[in-house]
Amino acid sequence: MSLGFSVEALIPRARGGGALRMGLVRVPEAEWLTPEADLAARAAVFAAEPDCVQVLPGAEAAVEEIAALLEHRRDAQSRHPGESWDPFASTSDAGADPERAMDPGFRRDDGFEGRAVSMSDTLRTAAGDVWEDLCILTPDASGQYRLTAAALAFPTDWHLAEKLGHALTPIHAPIHGYAEQLASGVDYFFATLQPGPIFGRTNWFVVASDAWRYLPRDAPQVRFAHVTADNAGATLFVRCERQTLRRLPQSGALLFTIGIHVEPLDRLSDGAVARVAQSVAGISSGEHERRAAPFYVEALTRYAERRNRSPELLA
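Structure (tokenized):
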């Protein structure tokens, strides 16, 4: 089953409650990134929020590799629309380029500040050509993967400045149960992932806004105060993150992409609404609160029952 590129398609692949799991599926190269999207919305964010693109020392090679990879992908698709392409056949190794190797701007001990600005611009340009946000993770001296660069236009309730430079477990600290249930498996997967295959998963949230950038500042009891069983179809939205992970063959970094897809409940099928309601009901304590579920779960459940005309479907 493909991950797809819509909330309706992504929901069946999302975790439906219970213990945390990675829930990975193989993603074909041709289905790596969203094929059509409103790139103007991303450009507007990048122009208005310069801090949503940041690059730390050590991520430069990965940024260049990503830029070359996406440029080649775009060129290949424009020349041969619909055909498959080899992403590793043409991405250049900046470290092997003699002209670049001799450029003092590429020496970290010689004006790195200017270099960082250049790398941020490079990553911003690359990320502006695709719908997905781009996160780069590189291993430190101990082998722990850290978030060392990102272009984050459409976050879901997190700020890049709070995560940049941190390892995987601290990054996921707000997720209840991550350290106990998932951390060791994620660390192993990151350490052993080989270049070539792409893996994907989906995450979901029920929110009270269709904004691409979801950074609510109000308290959840205020945010969902207007939601009732009667209006839930128009006032509750399912926000899905279509996430993919791949290793870059030249730099060795991991590229994590996040594609956002949002729909109101009333534009989803009865089955999808029932699954969302089931998933919310199955969220463990702690995670239930983190997702603000207590403030909309009753309205959602009653709405789903009406849509499916039978409470048994939610049992």
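The beta strands are 25-26, 53-55, 133-139, 145-151, 199-207, 237-247, 254-264. The CA atoms of residues 82 and 131 lie 18 Å apart.
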